[in-house]
């Protein structure tokens, strides 16, 4: 499963063997200038005694490997290659230069956070024509597909791997929440949703997962009461409280269309009931299902027709 992220097609172990390599002033032309005619090459000037170099190097290697061959990296020890460092006018380290088509095109000095390194590598990948989906995007697509097919265990594993690489990936956090809900682990889903970074609570993926969690929690309370609630509605069609609870029970039980029908009936008869509780519940259902779900699209059209008729 580890090769889902950071893997390059056709390479042993997931990435080309020479994706990251050490070079010297004698191999600089072949390893950097010539190689950059095919793909951008990042040159990391470092030294064993340099503390920031020891922090930057592994981070930069990680990001380069995640680019799956869209860029390459060469490491040069300035202590062992002083003439080259002089030619490159390296005055402080770590110093990083990027070459493409035989000439320097970008660079920076000093330790940088991982997010800025990803942006740096991303720009180079675009420059070299390697701007396709990232390994993280590929993994998210695979996880989403597994979840859609009902393989929630596999989806959870892939989402978890994504979070190992990007602990604040909102789509992966939301994905695990959805998987836990599907597996009936509603309390765990609520706890996991708490991992959402501060200030990101209104992200679309997080909002959708939160709506699905709210629906699951409400449905759990109404579980097993659908028949009794339906009997109350049949006896009194204007028992909106029963109809509202019935909608929640139906949605939790998988009858999403039936749940939407119940709420739309409340809106049709008395849209203002309980401070527009039916309309608000519909919006929660739509968020839980996602904006492109056919039932969301048809439900929104029907709701608009009622509200603006």
TrEMBL record:
Keyword Disulfide bond: yes
Keywords annotated in UniProt: Disulfide bond, Electron transport, Redox-active center, Transport
CDD domains recorded: ybbN
The protein's name: Thioredoxin
PROSITE patterns named in the record: THIOREDOXIN_1 (PS00194), THIOREDOXIN_2 (PS51352)
One annotated GO biological process: response to stress
GO cellular component, one term: cytosol
Keyword Disulfide bond on entry: yes
Location of the Thioredoxin domain: 17-148
Recorded superkingdom: Bacteria
GO MF, one example: protein-disulfide reductase activity
Family per similarity comment: Belongs to the thioredoxin family.
Organism listed in the record: Dongia mobilis
């Amino acid at each position: 499963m580890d090769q889902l992220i950071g893997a390059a097609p056709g390479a042993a172990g997931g990435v080309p063997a020479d994706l990251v390599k050490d070079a010297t002033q004698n191999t600089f032309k072949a390893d950097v200038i010539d190689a950059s005619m095919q793909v951008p090459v990042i040159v990391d000037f470092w030294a064993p005694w340099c503390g920031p170099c020891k922090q930057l190097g592994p981070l930069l290697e990680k990001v380069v490997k995640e680019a799956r061959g869209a860029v390459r990296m060469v490491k040069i020890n300035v202590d062992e290659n002083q003439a080259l460092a002089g030619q490159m006018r390296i005055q402080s380290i770590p110093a990083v230069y990027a070459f493409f088509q035989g000439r320097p095109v970008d660079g920076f000095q000093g330790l940088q956070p991982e997010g800025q390194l990803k942006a740096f590598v991303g720009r180079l990948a675009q420059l070299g024509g390697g701007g396709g989906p990232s390994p993280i995007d590929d993994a998210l697509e695979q996880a989403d597909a597994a979840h859609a097919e009902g393989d929630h265990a596999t989806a959870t594993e892939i989402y978890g791997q994504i979070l190992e690489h990007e602990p604040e990936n909102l789509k992966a956090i939301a994905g695990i929440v959805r998987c836990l809900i599907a597996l009936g682990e509603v309390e765990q889903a609520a706890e996991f949703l708490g991992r959402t970074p501060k200030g990101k609570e209104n992200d679309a993926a997080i909002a959708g997962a939160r709506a699905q969690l709210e629906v699951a929690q409400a449905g759990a309370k109404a579980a097993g009461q659908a028949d009794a609630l339906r009997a109350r509605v049949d006896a009194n069609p204007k028992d909106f409280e029963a109809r509202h609870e019935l909608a929640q029970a139906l949605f939790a039980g998988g009858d999403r269309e039936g749940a939407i029908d119940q709420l739309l009936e409340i809106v049709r008869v008395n849209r203002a009931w309980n401070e527009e509780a039916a309309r608000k519940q519909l919006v929660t259902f739509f968020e839980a299902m996602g904006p492109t779900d056919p039932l969301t699209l048809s439900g929104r059209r029907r709701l608009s027709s009622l509200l603006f008729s």
